[in-house]
Write a structure and sequence with these properties.
Elements: E1 21-34, E2 39-40, E3 44-45, E4 49-67, E5 72-76, E6 79-80, H1 82-94, E7 105-113, H2 123-142, H3 149-163, E8 175-178, E9 192-194, E10 207-211, H4 222-228, H5 235-255, H6 258-277, H7 288-304, E11 309-312, E12 318-322, H8 327-338, E13 347-351, E14 357-358
Length: about 350
């Protein structure tokens, strides 16, 4: 079984230098292949998951800090955002067992996204991982710890998990895995791990075209959806399925088996939405255009035998996943058959990326 991880609480008195300065990080969003859906305890996953780290969809965050009284001020896209600010302040308060020094410094945070709001991209994953990377940089710069990059990323992932579960996978390049699984060495519920070198290199350059079926804000938040899993009649069956799918998917990716990859990824996407439909109360996040797009993708794959598949997050928009080698054929298909079913013809082009970076 996994080992428990405990971090020493850092007091301001532990600092090796004056805690004041400025730090900036860029952190990407990610798209889950095996979905995390359902949690317990302190942001622990009910099932393990794995995701592609994206390249173009990212959050840039600049954090100014100095000794003070624990005040948090946040600007998003240049404007004060009090709702996001309140969420950050609540999170900062929740990690006082790890970073009690944060109660004695003031933070001024400037955040911006490379993608539009409600675009079907997990902004909490990119924003919260960027936030936690900044916090870990403060520790590294002023407390003479986290000097090893592996330790730095592990703690960044650990804190990101506490902020927003899926955010813990965003700090790693290409492929992040989160949640204990007996078949995956070093896996744990406490933080994500980098599994990019455990798969065939074809997956290192996968493309992700995001088809915006609807740009409207979704009716049920992911946080509420996780809570509804507690009483879902299919929850236990789902958690067993996710464990099996993760083992099978990692094996398929290791051998470069694209047919098995496609089967599992699409099953995971549709299972996620089936769980929403069987929650109490039930809800539906897919739109009519989502179904049209799914049918067209499957028909195209059947006709051409090209290894193109789809997945969805907790929303209506499709993420098309495919090897870089078939990009030209897929782009022709998108422009001729799929774009007309996207809201205002909106498509966001992305690909597997290298993870977070210090700016």
């Amino acid at each position: 079984m996994e080992k428990k991880l405990e971090y020493k609480a850092l007091e301001l008195a532990d600092a090796k230098s004056a805690v004041a300065g400025e730090i900036s990080w860029q952190s990407p969003s990610n798209i889950a292949l095996v979905k995390y859906w359902g949690k317990y305890g302190r942001q622990l996953p009910s099932n393990p998951s794995v995701s592609f780290t994206l390249k173009n969809a990212h959050t840039k965050m600049r954090m100014k800090y100095k000794e003070g009284s624990g005040q948090v001020i946040l600007f998003f896209e240049g404007e004060r955002n009090t709702s996001f600010e309140a969420r950050i302040a609540k999170f900062i308060d929740s990690i006082k067992d790890v970073y009690p020094f944060l109660q004695a410094i003031d933070l001024e945070i400037h955040s911006s996204n490379s993608f539009p709001h409600s675009a079907g991209i997990a902004s909490s994953a990119s924003a919260m991982s960027a936030l936690c990377l900044c916090l870990c940089s403060i520790e590294r710069n002023h407390f003479a710890s986290l000097t090893e990059q592996a330790d730095f990323l592990k703690k960044s992932s650990y804190l990101s998990r506490l902020a927003s579960g899926s955010a813990c996978r965003s700090v790693y390049p290409k492929l992040g895995q989160w949640g204990y699984h007996e078949a995956i060495v070093s896996s744990t519920d406490l933080y994500a791990i980098d599994v990019s070198e455990r798969v065939d290199r074809i997956f290192h350059s996968f493309k992700n075209s995001i088809l915006i079926a609807s740009a409207k804000e979704k009716s049920v938040s992911s946080s509420a959806g996780h809570q509804l899993m507690e009483n879902n009649p299919f929850a236990e069956v789902r958690f067993k399925q996710a464990n099996k799918n993760l083992a099978d998917l990692m094996q398929a990716m290791k051998t470069g088996d694209l047919n098995e990859f496609i089967r599992i990824v699409e099953e995971e996407a549709l299972t996620l939405h089936a769980l929403m439909m069987t929650s109490n109360p039930s809800y539906i996040l897919m739109k009519a255009n989502s179904l049209v797009l799914i049918e067209k993708v499957r028909a195209f794959r059947g006709q051409t035998k090209l290894p193109l598949c789809f997945t969805l997050d907790a929303g209506p928009n499709l993420h098309l996943l495919y090897p870089a080698s078939i990009q030209e054929e897929v782009q022709v298909f998108i422009q001729s058959e799929l774009k007309q079913h996207c809201e205002n013809g909106m498509i966001i082009e992305d690909e597997v990326g290298e993870g977070a970076s210090l700016l």
